[in-house]
Write a structure and sequence with these properties.
- The chain has helices spanning 7-16, 23-30, 48-53, 66-75, 109-122, 152-159, and strands at residues 38-41, 58-63, 81-83, 95-101, 123-134, 139-142, 145-148, 163-171, 179-186.
- It is an alpha/beta fold and 187 residues long.
- The protein has a single domain (3-186), classed as Vaccinia Virus protein VP39 (Rossmann fold, 3-Layer(aba) Sandwich), CATH 3.40.50.
- The strands form two sheets. It has a seven-stranded mixed beta sheet with strand order 3-2-1-4-5-9-8.
- It is globular, with a radius of gyration of 15 Å.
Length: 187
């Protein structure tokens, strides 16, 4: 059972995340991704970013937690949602963009590389990835949940042969330059 498969943990996360959403990240994405594009959000959690993304894009939200999916579906029955594992991404559909906000940092590094390879298969030609992470070089666990912190050197390794780097930038979420995002384009 994963961390977000327990209602208590989901409710704790929702309280901790209150007041934080990806408004500025999505404004950056909009400079690179035309309105109306198809987008898959990985790890939508309570759906704050999903709500914003749906205003401009054809979005499918996904999470591995039934609790998050059920909570969002109760408030937004028309939303298209999928239960997806961020590593295997068992989906046949392709997208113009795959977006995540501090989700992939919960993966072991080997699984992160596998996810990036699978994402290349799920992206349309010239499609974009937009992912954010906490900035740093360490790892820690909180109630069994893994947090990997990444810097530019490590994230550059994710580009591989499938992608070209469009943009990578540090930004502030809670403390000065505590976060980093990257935008990659499928070759």
């Amino acid at each position: 059972m994963g961390f977000y498969d327990k209602r208590k943990n989901v409710e704790e996360y929702i309280k901790l995340a209150e007041g934080f959403e990806g408004v500025e990240l999505i404004k950056t994405l909009q400079k690179h991704l035309p309105e109306g594009s198809s987008l898959l959000e990985l790890g939508m959690g309570p759906g704050k970013d999903l709500d914003i993304l749906m205003k401009n894009y054809e979005v499918i939200g996904s999470d591995s937690s039934d609790i998050f999916l059920d909570m969002y579906k109760q408030k937004n029955p028309e939303a298209e949602l999928l239960k997806l594992d961020a590593v295997t991404l068992e989906i046949k559909q392709q997208f113009d963009c795959i977006y995540s906000n501090k989700v992939l940092m919960h993966l072991q590094q080997g699984d992160l590389f596998k996810s990036m390879q699978r994402q290349a298969e799920v992206l349309k030609d010239n499609g974009l990835l937009f992912h954010s992470f906490w900035y740093g070089t360490t790892s820690e666990r909180y109630n069994g949940l893994l947090f990997n912190y990444y810097n530019e050197d490590f994230l550059q390794k994710l580009v591989g042969t499938e992608y070209e780097l469009v943009e990578m930038k540090r930004y502030t979420e809670m403390e000065q330059d505590d976060s980093i995002y990257m935008i990659l384009r499928k070759r």
